[in-house]
Specification:
The protein has 477 residues and is α+β, with helices and mostly antiparallel strands. The protein has ten helices and 18 strands. The model is unreliable at 1-30 (pLDDT under 50).
């Protein structure tokens, strides 16, 4: 056995030498490209950034002679042509929004601001100037069309006839389903808006056609009269930090039958909800809280659905608002909430008038929220949010009489909905020297030290749960 160990030890230097030689061969191979040829120097090319990417202004195509849209994506791949063209349509519509909203009556007045009445039928693709740029890290796309080209195209479209603006539509005697009825009304509105916008883009007078467009819009809104709607799950108070168990349910009945597959948009009121995009085979849709309710600044919140007939259309967006179907909930807000301050500051078991309570009272006073210092009564109608905690000060004991005597405070402030649950919690700790044997003053100094160290965290965490608790002016206190 000793001989074999000695033999391995004598071979070890040779093995190490062999490994070093192989490493040298590998490095030489890498430097020569592995095939004996010398490496080739590569000159990196400089990629110039177009001026329109830097400024958003194109010297040749700009708002003086056309409609321009520039999109910076911030990614290595430039936005697709389709995406940029859709944005160009919206920008063209935006140019006419003020005048449309001024001259049209409700619901078209509001729809002109919410919708997009310009589509691919109004903007000839072969007249769009389209450019893309990318340096491998960032990218941008650019689309423009000359005003003359846009006006000429729509003049030819108008010259071909205004079938839907000038002829009375043939409405079916009956529909097989609620969806068929809604689709017919939505497509009717789409067709008249299509022709109305062609007139607008061609620079023609639209006065005589406004009544027809308004009638189509009102007919779409009137679909609500054909549907019997029931919304359940509302008219309750929501507690911050407690996720409601039951859903909000919508049921739609159309002429005695479930209104199936109606397109919906959820009204979420700033809450995190699981929603449906359409009614199911029973004519129902649900909204379910996936998280505890959040403060949204409103004492009354409305959560539910509204019909979205634009989801049935292929080209433009009418923007016509339908009647919302919602359930009402009450949430804590500045005007319906009181703060219960249940805080104890003490030293060696005895309560003291400490600085933390005084600082909290001063900051809450700035928020214009009422404060109570006794548990809320059963008759309290307002929401109650509690700031509670026990901050206990004790002397730090030491066997070394030469050390300065000190007191230490430790505890936590908890912000919660009354009586539960906790919304935020912040630990507080501080120390102070005991001078002239004044233990109570040292305790107050330790509390002030802990408050100073934790104050910003307390403001941030409590405000995240309920923003009105500490207004911006509290940060300067």
């Amino acid at each position: 056995m000793p001989n074999s160990i000695s033999s391995r030890q004598s071979l070890f230097p040779y093995a190490r030498l062999a490994v070093c030689l192989l490493a040298v061969v590998f490095c030489v191979s890498c430097e020569t490209g592995g095939n004996g040829r010398a490496p080739v120097d590569v000159d990196p090319a400089t990629i110039d950034t177009p001026s329109w990417v830097k400024s958003g202004y194109h010297q040749q195509y700009n708002s003086r002679n056309g409609y321009v849209f520039v999109m910076l994506s911030g990614k290595e791949k430039a936005p697709e042509r389709f995406v940029v063209q859709q944005a160009l349509y919206r920008q063209i519509h935006g140019v006419y929004q003020p005048e449309l909203s001024k001259t049209l009556e409700s619901p078209l007045k509001e729809a002109a601001l919410e919708g997009r009445w310009v589509s691919r039928v109004h903007v000839p693709e072969d007249s769009i100037t389209f450019e893309q740029w990318s340096d491998g890290f960032e990218s941008a796309s650019f689309a423009a069309i000359a005003r003359d080209a846009l006006a000429g195209h729509n003049s030819r479209k108008v010259g071909a006839g205004l079938k839907h603006l000038t002829q009375k539509p043939r409405r079916p005697d009956s529909f097989n389903s609620a969806l068929d009825d809604l689709r017919w009304r939505a497509e009717r509105a789409e067709r008249v808006l299509d022709e109305f916008m062609a007139l607008t883009l061609a620079g023609r007078d639209t006065t005589e056609y406004r009544t027809t467009v308004l009638a189509a819009a009102n007919e779409l809104v009137a679909f609500d009269d054909e549907v019997r709607v029931k919304v359940s799950g509302g008219n309750t108070r929501l507690t911050l930090g407690v996720k409601p168990k039951g859903p909000v349910e919508l049921e739609c009945i159309y002429r005695g039958k479930p209104a199936v597959n109606l397109p919906l948009s959820a009204i979420e009121a700033g809450q995190k909800l699981a929603t449906n995009r359409q009614t199911d085979e029973r004519g129902m849709a649900r909204l379910t809280f996936t998280e505890a309710p959040r403060y949204n600044g409103q004492a009354e919140s409305f959560i539910g659905y509204e019909l979205n007939p634009d989801l049935l259309l292929a080209s433009l967006e009418t923007g016509i608002a339908m009647k919302p179907w919602t359930a009402k909930f009450e949430l804590p807000a500045r005007g319906n909430t009181v703060v219960y301050l249940n805080l104890t500051e003490k030293y060696e078991g005895g309560a003291i008038k400490g600085p933390v309570r005084a600082a909290l009272l001063e900051m809450i006073k700035l928020s214009e929220l009422d404060v109570i210092e006794e548990p809320p009564s059963k008759d309290e109608k307002r929401f109650v949010l509690t700031i509670e905690g026990v901050l206990a000060c004790n002397e730090l004991r030491s066997n070394n009489p030469a050390l300065q005597r000190q007191t230490h405070v430790q505890g936590a402030l908890v912000f919660k909905s009354w009586p539960v649950p906790a919304l935020a919690s912040v630990s507080l700790a501080g120390t102070a020297d005991i001078r002239d044997g004044d233990l109570e003053k040292a305790a107050r100094d330790a509390l002030a030290d802990g408050w100073g160290a934790s104050r910003e965290t307390i403001i941030a965490k409590f405000r995240e749960a309920f923003p009105p608790i500490f207004p911006a002016s509290a940060e300067r206190q």
